[in-house]
TrEMBL record:
Primary localization class, coarse: membrane
Family that this chain belongs to: Belongs to the binding-protein-dependent transport system permease family.
Gene3D superfamilies noted in UniProt: MetI-like
Domain ABC transmembrane type-1: 70-272
High-level lineage: Archaea, Methanobacteriati, Methanobacteriota, Stenosarchaea group, Methanomicrobia
Single GO term (MF): molybdate ion transmembrane transporter activity
Keywords from the named record: Membrane, Molybdenum, Sulfate transport, Transmembrane, Transmembrane helix, Transport
TM helices/strands, residue ranges: 28-50, 70-96, 108-130, 142-166, 194-216, 253-275
Protein name: ABC transporter permease
UniProt cross-references to Pfam families, sorted A to Z: BPD_transp_1 (PF00528)
Domain of life the protein comes from: Archaea
InterPro entries the UniProt entry points to: MetI-like (IPR000515), MetI-like_sf (IPR035906), ModB_ABC (IPR011867), NifC_ABC_porter (IPR006469), Sulph_transpt2 (IPR005667)
Membrane topology qualifier: Multi-pass membrane protein
Length: 280
């Protein structure tokens, strides 16, 4: 009569042991996958820092090709981000707060540059604003040339970076409680005043995060830039293009520029995380 409880006890212990073993195996498997993924992501980045000495890094920073690329990238990325903020903020606010015919199409077109191959974006811009482009041919009659100039770099960056800000801005505006806006309207505030004094300040954290992401995307743009603006030092050769060019003759300069972009990317991600955490 005592054998049945004993068998049941052993069976319970056996199931508990199997469950513990299964959980242990799953934990070990998940940890192995995590380690492999972290190695896959971090090893190439760490290799950049191991491949060049501090002396060679700082020596490369003094080379004209590096200085020109760094200066041009920061200038054009700042200009393109300012344009995206100026044009993208009203559009994001409009799409977040108003229904109108074709809004879904506008959203789709806004997101299109995210999935569009950079080379396609570059040739599309060239067909639109090149000397024989749909718009460029008319500008050319007035002596205005956009393709293969610094302006082309900015336009390419605006084209590829704008969705990152507009998507984030729209989500931030949608998260703002409309009761605050309604209260401002009941006090006689105009729509512009409500946007500037209520909606935008409340969504400020998300807007800053979107602007930072847009700046980083503009800074790293390569495909559309080289297709539409070319690769001319001091005029259109941004840091990604300079990395591509200097790899063929000056590896230290290419690695130095790559390290700068890695550091900027890390700072961007950290800044976005800090802002997002404070915002929520």
């Amino acid at each position: 009569m005592d054998s049945t409880p004993s068998r049941q006890g052993r069976e319970v212990l056996r199931h508990a042991w199997r469950a513990r073993l299964s959980r242990g195996f799953q934990t070990l498997f998940a940890a192995a996958l995590l380690v492999l993924f972290l190695l896959f992501v971090t090893l190439p980045v760490v290799s950049l820092f191991l491949r060049i000495s501090p002396e060679a890094f700082f020596r490369s920073l003094a080379e004209p090709v590096v200085i020109d690329a760094l200066s041009l990238s920061l200038t054009t990325a700042t200009a393109s981000t300012a344009i995206v903020l100026l044009l993208g903020t009203p559009l994001a606010l409009l799409n977040a707060r108003h229904e109108y015919p074709g809004r879904a199409l506008v959203d789709t077109l806004t997101d299109l540059p995210i999935v569009l191959p950079p080379a396609v974006a570059g040739i599309a811009l060239l067909m639109a604003f090149g000397r024989r482009g749909v718009v460029g041919q008319y500008l050319n009659e007035f002596g205005v040339s956009i393709a293969f100039t610094t302006v082309a770099v900015v336009l390419a960056q605006v084209f590829v970076a704008s969705p990152f800000y507009i998507r984030q801005a729209r989500a931030s505006f949608e998260a703002v409680d409309r009761h605050y806006e309604d209260a401002a309207r009941t006090l006689g505030a105009s729509p512009t005043t409500v946007a500037l004094r209520v909606t935008i300040p409340l969504a400020w954290g998300g807007l800053v995060s979107g602007a930072i992401l847009s700046f980083a995307r503009a800074l790293g743009e390569f495909g559309a830039t080289i297709m539409f603006a070319g690769n001319y030092q001091g005029r259109t050769r941004t840091m990604p293009l300079a990395i591509y060019t200097t790899m063929q003759g000056d590896l230290d300069a290419a690695i130095s520029l790559a390290i700068i972009l890695v550091v900027i990317s890390f700072v961007v991600i950290a800044a976005v995380k800090v802002i997002t955490r404070r915002n929520y």
